[in-house]
Each structure stands twice: as C-alpha cells, then as structure tokens.
Write a structure and sequence with these properties.
heterodimer; A: five-stranded mixed sheet; 22% helix; disordered N terminus; disordered C terminus; B: mainly beta; three-stranded antiparallel sheet; 0% helix; binds zinc ion; repeat (chain A)
Chain lengths: 636, 110
C-alpha cells in the first residue's frame, strides 16, 4: 500500500515517527555508507505515561512491543535507536541473557538466571526447573551421553518431580536405540530442531510478561482486533488473507460478495425437488425429486462455467428423499422409501440396491473416514454399511422414528432427530367413551391431504457416542424435527424445528446456543445447512417459497431471497469449495443457484432441453420463467 | 405439496394399505361396519391418515346425493375408498368429513 508522503508528515508528534524524521536529518545521504556513523541518539523526555493524553495505552508497554516487532522483522538498528530515544528497553540484560542461555543450551547459567526472573516461588520455580532439566536430559541422551543423562535423571529430575507418572516415560527413553528413535518416542525434535525455542515459550508462562514479553505480542493484539472486526462483519465471506485485511481501515466485507442473486435455474425434474447435495469437490450437484429420479448436475468451480446434466438416475421405485456423496465422490447414495441405491457417479450405473429397512430411509451419511455409511429410517433403525454396501453393524431399535441424522466430522458422535416411538392414537368417533388421552384435533379442512389427527408424539434429538452406540444426550423438543447438520468443528448441531424455528445446539455443553427465526415450517420436511467462509452463515428453505439466510453466531437474519415459485423451498446446500455459491430446491420443480452480484456474468445453462419429461403431471403448476427472464438477475 | 414422512399409528388394531402396509387408521376410529364399496364391504372411519384426496364430485348413493372425494394411498397410489365432503340428506349429515375404506383393500399391520 502506497500512501502519499504527507500522510506521514501530518502526524509529527506521534512517537514512533520521530526516528524517521531524525534519521533523515542525521544523515543527508544514507546510501553513502552502509555502516553509518552517527552521534548517540538523545533520549526524548515526554510528559505523562500514555502514548496520547486521552489514551489508556501505556507508553512504555507500547514502545517495548514496537521494539520487539522491529527486532523480529530484522530492523535491528531501528530497534536500538528506539531504545535509546525512548529510554525503554525491550527486556533487561538479565532476560536477554536467559534467552541466550536457553537457546545456546547453557543450562547451568539458565537455571541461575531463572532465580532472578520473578518466577513465583515454589511450584512455579520447580516446574520451570523441571522443564530445563528435562531438555538437558533429552539432549544428553540424543548425543549418547547416557551417564550424564542418568545423572540428570537421578539428581535433578527425580528430586523435582511432582508426578511419578511424568518421570516414568522419561526414564524409559534411556532404552531408545538411537537419536532418531529417541526423538520419535519423546515427540521431541532435538537440540537442533525447534525444541529449545519451544522450551523458551513454555518457560515464558512462568515469567511475568512485563519482564519477558510474550513472543509476537504486537501481532497477537492485531490479530485480536482482526477477529473482532470479522465478528462484526455480518456478511463476512472472504478467506482470511492479508489481501482482505488492512490495518488502515476496519474490515468490512463488501455485500456484493454475498450470494443473493439467482445465476441459474435448473429445470429438468418433472416434479417437486426435495433434496440437494454437493459433491465434496464442489463440481457436481445432486438433486432428488418426487419424480422418482436423481440428477447429477455438472457445475464446475470456475466463474461462468457451463452447467450441464451429467447423469439422470431414473431407476427409483418411489420418490427420492436423501442423497449422500462418498468422500471421493465416486459413489452417490440415494434413498427411495425403504430402498437405498448406490450409484457410480461417473457412469450413472446403479451398483447396488439395498433393502434392509422396513420403512422410509430418512437419512444417509458417510462416516468421516470414508469406510462406509450410516442409514437412519422411520423404522427406528440405524445401520452401518461398508462402502461395498454390505451391512457391518446395526444399532437395533432406537427410541425414535428417525427423520434425519448426521455424524460429527471428528467421528465421535452421531446426532439423530425424530419422533418418539410412542405412536399416536387416532381420534375416536364423537360420543365414544374409548378416549385416549389425545383426542383433540387440529383444524382439519377439506384441503388437507393427510388430516392432522392427534399430535402427541415427543420429538427428540439424541446424541450418541459413536464408539459405544449409547445415547449421551437426549433432548425433548416441542415440534417436528426435520433436518440436522453438524458444524465443521463438530461442536454444533443445526436442527430444523417446526413450527418456524431452527436451533443451534452446542454438543459440548448440551445447551441451545442460538435460535434462527423468520422462515416458515409447519408440516413439511424443510432442511437447512451451514455455509460460506468458516461456516459463517445458516441458510434454510421455507414453506413460504423463500430462502432465508442468517449470520450464524449473531443469529441476525441477513436476507430473504425470493424467486422460487409456489410451494416450499425444501432444501438448500452450500458449495463446499466455493464459499460464494449455494443452491436451493423447491416444489416448483426447479433448482436455483445463488451467487454474488459482483463480477459475475450469467452462467450458460443448457439444461432445459436434455430430458423432456412430461411436465407438471396435471398439477397445474406454472413453470418458472427461464433465467433470462428472472427479475432477480436482470439487474446484473 | 412438499415432502413429508408418512404417519404411524398405535392402538389395539391398526389398519394399513393391503399393497404397501402404509398405516391408515385404527379400530378405535371406526364408526360403522355397515357400508358397501366397489369391492364389497366397507367401513366408515372418523379419521384416516396417509391418504391423498382427489377432486370433489357429486355421487348419487343409496342413501342420497353426496359430494365425495376419492382417497388414494400416499405411498402406492391405490384407491382405497372415499371421503364425504357433503351429504344433502339431513339424516346423512353425520358422514360429512368422515372416510370410507374398502375392507378388502385393508390389512392389519399391528
Ligand atoms: Zn399403499
């Protein structure tokens, strides 16, 4: 970044610019001699103790951090000049000596110096000495000086050790065959590796930070400022590189980078589209439809790629509800009622059809190591399958008719949602004395295709320990649960909850962390997902035909995207490799791709004519116009 | 219409669709066994789940004129019976909003 020179001159009282002004006056032609001789720099006497009159930043602290930064960068002379001019030193000669002793392996001197570095008496000092002796011991072993090492073990480590458990692994290292074996077993990279520097960092926690400034302290503070600014940037959707963060101004993402414009409408399915999943490489989008088919769309990661229909997987006996890509994207799973189908994604050939569940398969999830997948069903069973489609394990009958499940990326937990197995009793004829506790009916008009009888099921989110298959948490929730996704850090579960709520559950604490509201969800399976850089956003379908997007951590509704036709937006999926693209699917038979408005030409889509399905099946749906006529895109 | 899972029922006797065993209703919801459908004996029920209702049309029945809708199994599409929207004879009003299921198309699922 180049700034006009006057920017520097405009602030001559700022202490850290003094040196610049002085040096130019001291040596008129600085290039004349590499080793400039100049007079001693005079200490500048300043009133007060802060860097500005109205600031709470202590001047000494601030200058010492500047000196540390200058040294780290390599501006050694500037650092020395600043020390002279300010009268502050980065650290006392005692601290500098201590640092040098550790890095050079002068252990006796280091131990002596430690006594004068303000380490808390007793425990702190003991632990610090233990760390030094441990390093010394390992270094003796590394160079084959076993006798000296054993001496350290007996006379220094043994008397110091507080925890016998800690000493045993150390003493067993004597048996190591050679230095390489030792380094491997000790998880230690040797005297010439980074071990001495790491020891210094460890020792630093015992020494008051005012004496010995923690490493890279200035940058640590600036990083905190950066994270704070990013947390305030609700549309934040850019990777954390220096390109997107400047010290000169507070960070704020351009909302133009946020995907809010329809850039393609994919319209080949002949009925409602219920589910979407991106391949892990982000190049393919699979869609599942009530028309008993799955389509794999080729989308590509480049800007303005052609979208084409890669495979149309038609051989399903019923409507298709779930999809799951294998980790290497070579196999796509689809579920159609009680059947699971495994497809070769390249050839479109059905590899295997699995019929092991007795009711609708409602969830499919590959395990994080790619060795197989888990299915959940309305028959209350959870099954584990090998990647060859052979049953490896079954969890038996669970407490719920499963509506969705997900495995945490760290492979420790499985989160299942569904209705408790206590199925409801239907209302009895009026006047009948055989009354179950739940004979109240919801308003049931003639338009309702499946009448709402008594709804008294309990809706549960159950968190299972994956190794023991035992529930470790079971939460009873008020409404139907239709979708569960796990955050990439395995901490949060995102759960769609009727009516009209999405919950973010903290799996570590077992508490509700956030609630997202605005979308409409009553009777249908509506799904949501995380998305964007760092999973900053939550996006969901809705029964009002719109797409809803929130900031994940602040739970602010950022956008309500219109465009889909009548009916529900059933599911959404954020591209895992393109933080600025997601897809939505709807009862209107279409899939929409959403991307930022800036710098994006229209995608060329040749997807309408591929398969001429008999459209509409007499439902009287009005087909949505093609992308050229889409009002949301016209403003581009 | 959107995606939904079928509902499951509990009770002493759950009736399901003969061809696909989808739960439809329970014996506690039965009002009368004294009906006839296209396939013989039929039952009148207070409530039925997991069916799709067709368009309304007027039908002249033995007990008078009625507005009815055919009902289909939501999984396999079998026509299972009908629902009464409106009965024109005062004595038949009790059937409004109730469902007829053909006995020969039902199976005990529990
Ligand atoms: Zn059926």
């Amino acid at each position: 970044m180049r700034l006009p020179e006057r920017e520097y001159d405009s602030n001559p009282t700022s202490p850290h610019f003094h040196h610049r002004a002085n040096s130019s006056s001291l040596s008129p032609s600085p290039k004349a001699n590499g080793h400039r001789s100049r007079g001693p720099v005079a200490k500048v006497e300043l009133p007060g103790a802060t860097i500005y009159d109205d600031s709470y930043i202590d001047r000494e602290e601030y200058i010492r951090l500047v000196i540390q930064s200058l040294r780290d960068i390599g501006y050694i002379e500037s650092a020395a000049t600043l020390e002279a001019e300010s009268g502050y030193v980065m650290e006392t000669s005692r601290v500098a000596d201590f640092r040098r002793c550790i890095l050079e392996g002068a252990w006796r001197e280091a131990e002596e110096a430690l006594e004068h570095l303000g380490v808390a008496e007793d425990d702190g000092l003991w632990e610090a000495k233990f760390l030094i002796s441990q390093q010394k011991y390992l270094e003796y072993l590394e160079t084959g000086k076993t006798t000296k090492a054993l001496h350290v073990l007996r006379n220094e480590l043994a008397p110091l050790h507080m925890d016998p458990e800690q000493l045993q692994p150390l003493s067993s290292l004597v048996m190591c065959s050679d230095a390489a074996d030792l380094r491997q077993k000790a998880g230690w990279d040797g005297a010439h590796g980074s071990s001495r520097r790491r020891l210094l960092v460890n020792l630093q926690s015992y020494i008051p930070s005012s004496l010995m400034i923690p490493p890279r302290r200035f940058v640590t503070l600036l990083d905190q400022a950066r994270l704070r600014q990013i947390s305030q940037c609700v549309y934040h959707n850019a990777p954390l590189t220096s390109r997107h963060f400047s010290l000169y101004a507070d960070h704020a993402c351009d909302t133009d980078l946020f995907p809010r414009i329809t850039t393609a409408i994919l319209q080949v399915h002949g009925d409602e589209v219920w589910s979407l999943e991106w391949s892990h490489n982000g190049k393919f989008l699979a869609s599942a439809s009530k028309d008993k088919s799955v389509i794999i769309w080729s989308v590509g990661l480049n800007r303005n790629p052609d979208i084409s229909l890669h495979q149309h997987l038609q051989d399903h006996p019923f409507a298709v509800g779930c999809l799951a890509w294998s980790l290497d994207d070579t196999i796509l799973l689809s579920s159609s009622e009680q059947y699971i189908k495994m497809w070769n994604t390249e050839t479109g050939i059905c590899i295997r059809t699995i019929e092991a569940h007795t009711e609708t398969v409602s969830a499919l999830a590959w395990v994080p190591d790619g060795s197989g997948f888990i299915s959940g069903s309305q028959d209350r069973k959870i099954n584990l399958w090998g990647s060859d489609g052979k049953l490896r394990d079954s969890w038996g009958i669970t407490a719920i008719r499963i509506t969705d499940l997900a495995v945490t990326p760290d492979f420790t937990r499985l989160v299942a949602v569904g209705e408790s197995a206590k199925d409801p009793v239907l209302p009895t004829p009026r006047g009948d004395s055989v009354t179950a506790p739940n004979t109240n009916r919801n308003g049931n008009n003639g338009n309702n295709p499946t009448p709402n009888g008594a709804r008294t099921q309990e809706h549960l989110m159950i968190v299972y320990d994956l190794t023991t298959k035992q529930p470790e948490l079971s939460v009873s929730l008020g409404g139907q649960l239709t979708s569960v996704k796990i955050s990439s850090d395995s901490q949060y579960a995102l759960v769609n909850h009727a009516p009209d709520e999405i919950h973010l559950w903290d799996l570590f604490t077992g508490r509700l962390a956030r609630k997202y509201t605005g979308q409409r969800q009553g009777r249908h399976i509506i799904r949501s997902c995380f998305g964007g850089v760092d999973g900053n956003f939550v996006v969901s379908g809705s029964e009002d035909g719109n797409v809803y997007i929130w900031h994940r951590d602040r739970a602010i509704l950022l956008d309500v995207l219109t465009g889909h036709g009548s009916g529900s937006v059933n599911s959404v999926a954020w591209n895992p490799r393109n933080a600025q693209m997601f897809a939505s699917c709807s009862d209107d038979f279409t899939i929409r791709l959403w991307e930022p408005s800036s710098g994006l030409a229209h995608r060329t889509a040749d997807v309408q004519s591929h398969e001429s399905e008999p459209g509409g099946k007499g439902k009287g749906k009005s087909r949505e116009p093609w992308v050229e006529d889409d009002p949301a895109s016209r403003s581009l | 219409m959107g995606m939904s899972y079928r509902r499951y029922l509990a009770g002493a006797r759950v009736y399901g669709c003969l061809s696909c065993r989808t739960h439809l209703t329970t014996i506690h919801s039965m009002i009368s066994r004294a009906f006839n459908g296209q396939h013989g004996r039929a039952y009148l029920f207070e409530d039925v789940v997991n069916v799709i209702e067709g368009e309304p049309n007027d039908r002249q029945m033995t007990t008078g004129n009625h507005t009815v809708r055919d009902i289909y199994c939501c999984k396999c599409g079998t026509t299972l019976g009908w629902k009464y929207d409106k009965a024109y004879e005062q004595s038949q009003k009790y059937k409004e909003g109730k469902y007829i299921l053909e006995r020969n198309l039902l199976v005990d699922v529990q």
